[in-house]
Design a protein that fits this description.
By secondary structure, the protein is mostly helical. It has helices at 6-23, 30-48, 67-74, 84-91, 112-125, 130-137, 141-144, 147-151, 180-193; strands spanning 27-29, 57-59, 64-66, 92-95, 98-101, 158-159. A hairpin with a 2-residue loop joins strand 4 and strand 5 (98-101).
Length: 201
């Protein structure tokens, strides 16, 4: 079951992009920001049993894509609520394949753990190009389970399962290393509690 609280979440999605833009000297590339978001959500879910963005993730040929945040980055009015454009343009200026932060982050939309993990991910991966980040994302089961069909053009995209974010791989980056007990606890709490609105935190 996918729960999307558009009234709350589109503002938070804008602020996530805004925060990453500021961390990246106020301007960030579309491919890079979307990969950093996936990394942050994967770590946050495993560690704190909640997602930061609570977006719908799609496996696509190059990457896992946070689909609503992509629409926000692209300022795709076809899919966004009417009030979104004004809010987006209040904080972000889009040019070519980048956005620039033009207003301070509204931190009231974040929890302490949200900020902790977003900054941790940025510090860990800020030197990586979007091409390097693509290679990283292609190692994990939420993408690799669809790899053959995507590469053979059987499908162009597929919705990811959040529970795959809890799976380990032998060569995973150390940032995903969490004790087995804590990982299982996070997974159990997420499974029991995902239907409640307080997960949007």
């Amino acid at each position: 079951l996918i729960l999307i609280n558009m009234e709350f979440n589109f503002k938070k999605w804008v602020q996530i992009i805004n925060l990453l833009s500021i961390l990246e000297w106020k301007s960030i590339d579309k491919l890079k920001v979307l990969k950093l978001i996936w990394l942050a959500d994967r770590v946050h879910l495993r560690k704190y049993w909640k997602l930061i963005a609570w977006d719908i993730y799609l496996a696509m040929p190059l990457w896992p894509v946070a689909s609503w945040m992509k629409n926000i980055f692209d300022q795709n009015e076809e899919y966004l609520p009417k009030q979104a454009k004004k809010y987006i343009q209040e904080y972000l200026h889009k040019y070519t394949h980048k956005v620039k932060s033009i207003k301070k982050v509204d931190y009231s939309l974040f929890s302490e753990t949200n900020i902790e993990i977003i900054k941790e991910i940025y510090i860990k991966f800020w030197t990586k190009s979007w091409r390097e980040l693509i290679n990283i994302t292609h190692n994990y089961p939420e993408w690799t389970k669809f790899e053959e069909k995507i590469n053979n053009w059987i499908i162009s995209q597929a919705q990811m399962n959040y529970f795959d974010f809890f799976k380990n791989i032998p060569s995973q980056d150390s940032i995903f290393n969490i004790s087995k007990d804590n990982l299982e606890l996070s997974k159990d709490i997420f499974e029991e509690s995902r239907q409640f609105s307080y997960l949007f935190a």
